[in-house]
Amino acid sequence: MRHSIESTLHHFSHALSNALISEKIAARQTLLQKIDVRIRLIGTLLLLIAVVLSHTYRGILVLLAIALCLAILSGVSLFTLAKRVWTVVFLFTAVIAFPALVLTPGPPISSAFGHFQVTETGLRTAILLVLRVETAITITAVLVLSTPWNKLLLATRALGLPAEIVTILGMTHRYIFLLLETASQMFESRKSRTVGILHNADQRSGAGKTAAVLMMKTMDLGNDVYTAMIARGFSGEARILEEPRLRSRDFIALLAFASAAFFCFWIGR
């Protein structure tokens, strides 16, 4: 039980530390943070569309270079991107792209997989898929890491996302960390009261009881929060204290995003 509790506490603290890093990056006053969040979201969507429509390495590589420049100028560490984004996405995408090496018809390169032959067309397709996914995820990660969650939700609301979905996403993001902290305190309390080594059955029983108590606390918290919101006149529309206003630099940034997306689409068509 002690080993499982320590492992759980480690994962909880790791999740909270990642969230803290994202909040610190979003609070900086660097390149993207100075641009209106709606412009950031629209610009990101334009770059993602360019990634999808690009069919050559040139266009995607230019988009990846733009994403890396935005990350550096916005205070997003490349090590953070490599650790939290690139490695995981590469492994996942490589598994999906692997069959294309031998199933795509084309000039053969080698027969390292027995009767299956790696084709030149399949290799190009697999590399293009991995590169496209890595670029798209990098662009999205730079936006998320450089933007507070509540402002990002406000931008999606301005673009027409229903208020109910925005409210659900906002409350989920807020209270998932509260529940993580509650669960961490529960496991730490159980760890401090555990003496010796428990059997596997006792470990499973303890973990099940902890999960049940956490679920009950979650349901009670949900009812309390809903009652408090209704008592304060909540009408379904999420609001923040700061009303965003577009400035001249925001229009310049939108023009730059659109120009970069069109240029990359043009060279990658």
The proportion of residues forming helix, as a percent range, comes to over 70%
Instruction: Tell me the β content.
Output: under 5%
- β-strand number: 2
**Overall pLDDT metric:** 80
The order of strands across the largest sheet is 1-2
pLDDT below 50 for ≥5 consecutive residues: which ranges? none
N-C termini distance:
57 Å
What oligomeric state do the depicted chains represent?
single chain
Largest sheet: 2 strands, antiparallel
Main structural class = mainly alpha
Secondary-structure element series = HHHHHEEHHHHH
Write a structural description.
The protein is mainly alpha-helical and 269 residues long. Helices cover 75% and strands 4% of the residues. It contains ten helices and two strands. It has helices at residues 2-27, 37-53, 57-73, 78-97, 100-103, 120-145, 149-158, 163-192, 200-231, 248-268; strands at residues 108-113, 116-119. A two-stranded antiparallel sheet has the order 1-2. β1 (108-113) and β2 (116-119) form a beta hairpin. The longest helix is centred in the C-terminal third of the chain and has 32 residues, at 200-231. The mean pLDDT is 80.
Question: Could you list some keywords that capture this structure?
Answer:
mainly alpha; globular
What does this entry show, briefly?
The protein is mainly alpha-helical and 269 residues long. Helix content is 75%, strand content 4%. α2 runs antiparallel to α6 (120-145), α3 (57-73) packs parallel to α6 and α4 packs antiparallel against α6 (120-145).
